[in-house]
Write a structure and sequence with these properties.
Largest sheet: 3 strands, mixed
Distance between the termini: 11 Å
Oligomer: single chain
Helix content: 55-70%
Shape: elongated
Strand content: 15-25%
Order of helices and strands: EHHEEHH
Number of helices: 4
Structural class: alpha+beta
């Protein structure tokens, strides 16, 4: 993933958009990651993945009956599992 300072992102916005079409770009402000710019295609894929995770969590909850686990915990666990599947080396 490419990286860019917030100052560079502001002054080179056109270049940032071009970079984001190829891969997500992390924007840093004062040395801390504060945002990610990504293409519409990547964003749509991300949203589709979230929807799939939500459906899986709902299906798991229905299959298991009433659960004492909070819905947010189930979603967070599914997201972590997906990150691990996408990056087995653990570079989240």
């Amino acid at each position: 993933m490419k990286e860019m300072s917030s100052t560079d992102a502001k002054t080179r916005f056109g270049a940032l958009i071009d970079m984001a079409q190829r891969e997500p770009v992390t924007i840093h402000k004062k040395g801390r990651a504060v945002a990610v710019m990504l293409s519409m295609q990547d964003f749509a894929e991300h949203e589709a993945m979230k929807l799939t995770l939500l459906q899986q969590a709902i299906d798991a909850g229905i299959a298991s009956g009433v659960s004492d686990r909070a819905f947010e915990d189930i979603i967070a666990e599914a997201e972590v599992d997906t990150i691990r599947e996408d990056d087995p080396a653990g570079h989240a």
